[in-house]
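2024-03-11 09:14:02 DEBUG pipeline.ingest accepted 1 chain
2024-03-11 09:14:02 DEBUG pipeline.ingest length=81
2024-03-11 09:14:03 DEBUG pipeline.predict start
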Amino acid sequence: MQIKEFPAEYFIKLEGQDFLLGRLSINKMNGSFWVEIDIVTKESKKIYAHVGNLYNSTDIDEAITSSVQMLSNYVRTGKRP
């Protein structure tokens, strides 16, 4: 994925949730990426639940894939990693 400006936000539709979205806030610092993973309300984008953070990823695609997996696990189990 080609991201040129940071921080970048991506929203993920959550199956079966009409009022909530997954949000990945991607940041770059000193050549590595970190992602803040939250569940937010669809309308106001206010944080409903903080899922976790992913730090020190050297590859943006790997950071996004791992973050989506963390979000998926949280939605499925209701537990933070």
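2024-03-11 09:14:41 DEBUG pipeline.report The helical segments are 60-77.
2024-03-11 09:14:41 DEBUG pipeline.predict end
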